Amino acid sequence: MLRRGGGTAKAKRAPDSIRKGMAGAAEGQVPHRHFDERRVGHRRPRRVALTSRTPCPKVISPCAGVGFLNPLVENTSSMLAHRYVWSRSAALAPHRDLILDLRRLALAGLPRMWRPEGDFFAYRVRRSDTDVVREGFSRRYTAISVIGLASEAEVDRATALGSITLSDLTHRLVRDVAGVANLGDVALTVWACAAGGHGDLEAAANRLRVLRADVEPYPTVEVAWALAALCVAATRGDTEARGRLATRLIDSLGPSGVFPHVLGGRGRLRSHVSCFADMVYPIQALAFYHRLVGDRRALLAAEKAADVISRHQGAAGQWWWHYDRRTGRVLEGYPVYAVHQDAMAPMALLALAEASGRDLGEPIARGLAWLESSPELGGGTLVDRNAGLIWRKVARREPGKLSRTLQAAASRLHPRLRVPLVDALFPPGVIDYEDRPYHLGWLLHAFPDPGAAA
């Protein structure tokens, strides 16, 4: 039997994760059968060594910022950040210095990932033999960066973006949104427009409505983003759509407390496998929905899923990767991603804490403790202060994604069946030396400046 506390090999190139479906789905990067992000959402041109940022023309907008009141909305959303919870959690108090240090790394790291020649943030930065290089472009990661920076003070935005404004970034996202076919990219664009104060929120919202996230087959993560975006935007015309999206997520939650990987998809060999992203984004979205309309079912579903991931959290604070939807048990723990530890789990649990009134700081604190000192690394850390980056994950020493493939196949035969000796044969301890803008964006979203709370 697999002991909880084991991890995966160094990451393959991004196209593999998109092409091979769930086996290679990067957290938050859910493959969709109607869309190839290599062609549209993410472009991967030649590598560019990191140099000083080339500034973009400054666009001044009076509506940039969290406090923007759009005439299309029912009320100004307060769901853009979690400062009121994390800074007052007794469990997180011992980690305050680490959180503030991670924030500094995020604010300093984002400008290194900007691609001025492509109008978007890079797909990733990666350590080469001689330097750290930028690769590709990402509409999706640009939107998440806007969401993260939206709750920052103007001086911190300037530190991260220089002459670029949030309104400028959202304008670039919206200008061709009508031709974007990926639900996740469109949903995050709506969210970014609401957070960044872009006046053409309605254009993005119209595109989101066309994609019919409430009925068509889509990855669970993308449906959750659609609900979260409509909750943050609080557009008047989408009351019923929000309700249908919330109901779709609630109804998909199995008795085990695990959401499926795809909503409305056909059964397949790996249909029982869900990943960590399939859990945290619905938790966050349903918490948002409960706060907006007071739907008790949404709160209960979010709490049930949060209890599953918290109950199965690793002994050292690891947030595990793959779950069996039939039983709620961990199928394969590794890789352990830094973004799960310092961003995705915190932002989901803090959203739920705000909705429920519960202090959920303890599992967040355990996750941060792992990031600061990982047993798989002999007490080392993915936080590289010399490089000014947070490396992506700790994985197993294995060919490809063998452990995940074997455990998915074995558990398909019987829910309790596992391939033995995986930890001995493929021990965790390989660092994936890359970072991505969405990691830093979600980190800022989860842990905004507590001094800005007033």
Provide structural commentary.
With 454 residues, this protein is of the alpha+beta class. It has one domain (14-23, 34-452): Glycosyltransferase. 43% of the residues lie in helices and 11% in strands. The protein is built from 17 helices and 18 strands. A four-stranded antiparallel sheet has the order 2-6-5-18, with no helix packed on it. It has a three-stranded antiparallel sheet with strand order 10-11-12. A hairpin with a 5-residue loop joins strand 11 and strand 12. Helix 7 (183-196) packs parallel to helix 9, helix 9 (220-233) runs parallel beside helix 11 and helix 10 crosses helix 11. The model is unreliable at 1-41, 43-48 and 50-77 (pLDDT under 50).
Helix content: 40-55%
Please, what is the average pLDDT? 82
Largest sheet: 4 strands, antiparallel
Number of extended strands: 18
> Which structural class is indicated by helix and strand composition?
alpha+beta
Total helical elements? 17
Distance between the termini: 51 Å
Strand order of the largest sheet: 2-6-5-18
Give the total of domains.
1
Specify the CATH architecture: Alpha/alpha barrel
User: Which percent range describes the beta-strand content?
Assistant: 5-15%
Q: What is the general shape?
A: globular
Low-confidence stretches: 1-41, 43-48, 50-77
Indicate the CATH class: Mainly Alpha
Rg from Cα:
20 Å
Structural topology:
Elements lengths: L13 H6 L22 E2 L4 E2 L33 H4 L9 H14 L4 E2 L4 E2 L2 E4 L4 E4 L1 E2 H11 L4 H8 L4 H9 L8 H14 L4 H10 L7 E2 H14 L5 H14 L9 E2 L9 E3 H18 L2 H16 L10 E3 L5 E3 L3 E2 H19 L4 H12 L10 E2 L4 E2 L2 E4 L5 H12 L8 H4 L2 E5 L1 E2 L1 H10 L8
Antiparallel strand pairs: 1-7, 2-6, 3-4, 5-6, 5-18, 8-9, 10-11, 11-12, 13-16, 14-15, 16-17
